[in-house]
Amino acid sequence: MGAGRFAPSPSGDLHLGNLRTAILAWLFARSTERKFLMRVEDLDRARAGAEAQQLSDLAAMGLSWDGEVVRQSERSNLYAAALDGLRDRGLLYECFCTRRDIADAPSAPHAAPGTYPGTCRGLTEAERAAKREMRPAALRLRTEVGSFTVTDELHGAYTGVVDDFVVLRNDGVPAYNLAVVVDDGIQGIDQVVRGDDLLSSAPRQAYLAKLLGYGIPAYAHVPLALNSEGKRLAKRDGAVTLAQLAAEGIDADAARAVILASLGLPTSSIDAALAAFRPASLPTDPWVFTTSPDARGTGKPIGWPS
Ligand code: GLU
């Protein structure tokens, strides 16, 4: 049996957009007889108390997960072992570039913005030794392709850049792209459902999964929630977390109903939604969520039951 997952970063409260992605990940996993795992991505950006609040909000949505919650901060040995294996194969190199160095470096014609230009790829040992005196090194993957194609349930075949991306940051923390691939591989995740802001990371991750001998998961990058200005929904947009909504008298059941309605699913319960869930009929446009008072003058955000 395969598994899907939700992998929040415990940087603060989840908002309706995050909760909607979590519900979708759960629906995708449960409707395909997969396990559903919960993994807290707390290698950085962890804020005290945020994990407990996020898990309780996810449970309030009616979501359940299999097994214990896994925390990345407790898995350093797994990331170190993966890095050792890559190092032994000659697939890592030290990089001393600052963001500025990368921005200022001449890039190959037609290179996608942010593509690492390869500055440190060919340094001699003497050059590296000199640079180590100046600043700690990050480790990059020595890649052999320029791009890689993944298949996404909502986006079809998606080809994206695979540059020599960072796998260990220069502060010693495993990079997101490494941790996520190692965890998905070891946890037997064969279905990755997450926000479509991460679609462009999928080719790098799939390429690394292949290098590490893991299967490449099925992907579904789902549309994000946007505010009334078309920008990514954020907590400052008003009543968008369960705590903020509760203060307005809107409970978790009502919040879940609004999310399910936005997906075109029955709103009575999460199980009713599961029974009706068909990936092919999901809306593919972003969910525009507006919290301005509606025309009826109830003071409640548009979309809320009055
Ligand atoms: N932790 C990431 C986030 O909260 C998600 C990573 C993933 O699903 O691959 O944005």
UniProtKB/TrEMBL annotation:
Every Glutamyl/glutaminyl-tRNA synthetase class Ib catalytic domain range: 5-250
Keyword Cell membrane: no
The UniProt record lists the keyword Oxidoreductase: no
Binding, L-glutamate: R5, F6, A7, P8, S9, E41, Y176, R194
Motif ('HIGH' region): 8-18
Pfam families: tRNA-synt_1c
Binding site for Zn(2+): C95, C97, Y116, C120
Requisite cofactors: Zn(2+)
One Gene Ontology molecular-function label: glutamate-tRNA ligase activity
Residues reported to bind ATP: K235
Keywords per UniProt: Aminoacyl-tRNA synthetase, ATP-binding, Ligase, Metal-binding, Nucleotide-binding, Protein biosynthesis, Zinc
Bound cofactor: record note: Binds 1 zinc ion per subunit.
InterPro entries: aa-tRNA-synth_I_CS (IPR001412), Glu-Q_tRNA(Asp)_Synthase (IPR022380), Glu/Gln-tRNA-synth (IPR000924), Glu/Gln-tRNA-synth_Ib_cat-dom (IPR020058), GluQ/Sye (IPR049940), Rossmann-like_a/b/a_fold (IPR014729)
EC id: 6.1.1.-
NCBIfam families reported in the protein's UniProt record: PRK05710.1-3, PRK05710.1-4, queuosine_YadB
PANTHER family tied to this protein: GLUTAMATE--TRNA LIGASE (PTHR43311), GLUTAMYL-Q TRNA(ASP) SYNTHETASE (PTHR43311:SF1)
HAMAP family associated with the record: Glu_Q_tRNA_synth
Described purpose of this protein according to its UniProt entry: Catalyzes the tRNA-independent activation of glutamate in presence of ATP and the subsequent transfer of glutamate onto a tRNA(Asp). Glutamate is transferred on the 2-amino-5-(4,5-dihydroxy-2-cyclopenten-1-yl) moiety of the queuosine in the wobble position of the QUC anticodon.
Family as reported in the entry's similarity comment: Belongs to the class-I aminoacyl-tRNA synthetase family. GluQ subfamily.
Name the UniProt record assigns to this protein: Glutamyl-Q tRNA(Asp) synthetase
Gene name of the encoded protein: gluQ
